[in-house]
Amino acid sequence: MEQVVSVAQGRLSGVLQGKVAVYRGIPFAAPPVGELRWRAPRPPAHWQGIRQADTFSPACWQSLEYCKAVGGGDPGQFSEDCLYLNIWTPARRDAEPLPVMVWLHGGGYTIGAGSLPPYDGAAFASRDVVLVTVNYRLGHLGFFAHPALDEENPDGPVHNFALLDQIAALKWVQENIAAFGGDAGNVTLFGESAGARSVLSLLASPLAKNLFHKGIIQSAYTLPDVERKKALKRGVALAGHYGLQNATADELRALPADGLWALEGPLNIGPTPISGDVVLPEPMLDIFFAGRQHRMPVMVGSNSDEASVLSYFGIDPAGQVELLRRERRFGLGLIKLLYPGVKGDAELGRQVCRDMAFTTLGFVVMQAQQRVNQPCWRYYFDYVAEAERKTYANGTWHGNEVPYVFDTLSLTPPASEYVNQNDLTFAGQICDYWTRFARSAGPHSKAIPGPLSWPACVRGKDRTMRLGVHSRARFKVENRFMRMRMQLFKRVMKHHVSLD
Questions:
Q1: d(Cα 463, Cα 71) in Å, to the nearest integer?
Q2: 467 vs 270: CA distance, rounded Å
Q3: Beta-strand relationship, 298-303 and 376-383
Q4: How far apart (Å, rounded) are the C-alpha atoms in residues 323 and 310?
Q5: What is the value of pTM for the model shown?
Q6: Which end of the chain is more exposed for a tag (fewer CB within 10 A), N or C?
């Protein structure tokens, strides 16, 4: 049975799955190909008749194997023509408009897609939330700086094309989500890893003001943005790699899209946005340190074994401790005092890298929220499915909270093969917290209801919800969680967190 809706560009036919209507592959911008590569996204074209929205669009060019291994599954086909979104909404809707949640996938800005199995929105729709997942440009197609392109932009340089895609998707949602039963005045933007980093960037971008009303930041990292000057050098080096000295914009746009994703260091990207263009005139971290982010309720947190992701960037946590010992910088003795009872370089390095690169950002965001008198809900995710506890002996890996948030454990391999009812119950409780935040959190909210009332961090209150404790299904509110570590790492992270 089809579900037809009218949007600004024409009529769309979705697919009915039980009590949920799904609309796949909706264009929110013109294809960013040919002349439109490395330009701000243009509006999508209108169409005649009814467009079938029953198939996911291609993802942006990326590594298939890498995405299957660590990005959440098989992203399907690839194309430079990738600016599409997907919507899940209750098939039967009351007159009351529903809260909207817009998901930005992770993957270091190099892999991922809004169509991956963990991001299925049926559980959100069954809780009376309209879920939108977004594709955006990845790799060099999403972030690129070159003098030849600067000349085309008299209003200022443009480098963060991926962020502009996300902004275009939010504008499309503002214009069209009412047709799907959504409330354009209650949009929560949320994401994990690079997706969470994108939420932070849009909280800091003047171009995203008033396009969303709440933010959820899952496992964002403290790496500084790439400076414009450095990005321009990288762009010139990339052109040189293809034999293009003093390249023109036309020559750059003629480069094969399917070859750019495979480039390795030092010709690869980020994984952070570029500061110094019209999207991010200032570095995102500077905006948050100064408390100048857009004012809205925020949820922020990270996982108990975030250091699991560092091996993909060639970082050995034990080696980082040895480096501190060798260089005698930053006081290894002080660090050991902050981690009493932690034995051995490997375990100390794992916890220090986790906290410096991930946990501290939740503390920074909380303090920024307190400066602007907006509530912040902080969490620390530490649940592991019962059958996986030997595999994930150190806690929740980077990204492993996502199928709990989406309540898609039974759809997400390999967990889908052995999850039990206890795991599924816990996932349902996590999804409930997220949807309740989207539905009712406001500037004066004090708590989110659930198995344990989750209090907001307001001025003078530093509270963290433990979502799982020592991998077990418990909820616990802690005051001043890791406070001494957070204060130290906040002071030094801008000088000590890098991939160089």
A1: 31
A2: 30
A3: parallel
A4: 16
A5: 0.97
A6: C
